[in-house]
């Protein structure tokens, strides 16, 4: 189950679940381990905005009609910025903000079979900001192939990006369907499919895609043909060592940067394993209540409205993101989060020299992030996000219906 984002009290709140607990990094002063995580996150919760953003359709919606209502609204505040972009091309969709600043709509109808990302900022009467995000996909042409292919055609992605085909309905004859889907690479790598469920079929080679190669996906189902091509960019593999609390960024085989980090605390360790960046958000809200972390009075253990430079690593909510609320000595010294990987940042994320901003700007969808030496004893499921690479090749091939 994807615990990506949900509406809690009208707020689009992305869960932050990593390892065995929720994520959203935090820390305290002097680099000393916090007594309780709720205490550490309290300042951020107290500073939370009263504004509540709602995006329609909700996060993760598929088969959205091109004439269906798409709207961003806010209560207890005003919208300050709304952007809607086509994920594959980055093209921004024009829209209009209402005169009172409480709603926004795109100016025209959407394109078919297109994934869009909506990002909204708002402020309450005290000037406290909040961010909302949603990714939606529009319906395919009538009678077209019932399924969704990722990544988007025409995109450039990192070497860890698997091909994922999500079906609208459960597939009974998996061999018949898989045989009608061909995935190939200009590198000549052998590509094999693996069924994670009756509705999800992923494809990947034994090892990461070759940098600079082109991947072609051809589908021929129900008498309809569809071809999707995307390119593999440079190789970037980043390794987080939870023991040394350092992340090493390797680009095309050469170390280009080492960044101090703070990963999951002993109570909420970060998953060990290979994860792949699947989404990027310049700011995002993280609310402990969405994953059951509340204080005795029922309020969230943390409610951070503007977590900067956040990149999703798992469907259950593990992120690598900026952290402006921890003291500088935390990074590289103490693991303090609820499961995410935190990098030093500033509130608002406006300082491009900060480690989190640098990593965000130098990362792309499909890049690999490896976590090792974490205290976590559970096993990261290969279908948790794009964690396919954690499955041994022999087991991967065994999950094909045609091999």
From TrEMBL:
Residue stretches making up the L,D-TPase catalytic domain: 236-372
- Residues forming coiled coils: none
**Record keywords:** Acyltransferase, Cell shape, Cell wall biogenesis/degradation, Peptidoglycan synthesis, Signal, Transferase
Give the residue range of the signal peptide.
Answer: 1-23
Catalytic machinery residues? 321, 340
Q: Which InterPro entries match?
A: Big_10, LD-transpeptidase, LD_TPept_cat_dom, Transpep_catalytic_dom
SUPFAM superfamilies attached to this UniProt entry: L,D-transpeptidase catalytic domain-like
Record's CDD domains? LDT_IgD_like_2, YkuD_like
Write out the ranges of the annotated region (Disordered): 24-68
Which domain of life does the UniProt lineage start with?
Bacteria
**Pathways involved:** Cell wall biogenesis; peptidoglycan biosynthesis
- Name of the protein described by the UniProt record: Ig-like domain-containing protein
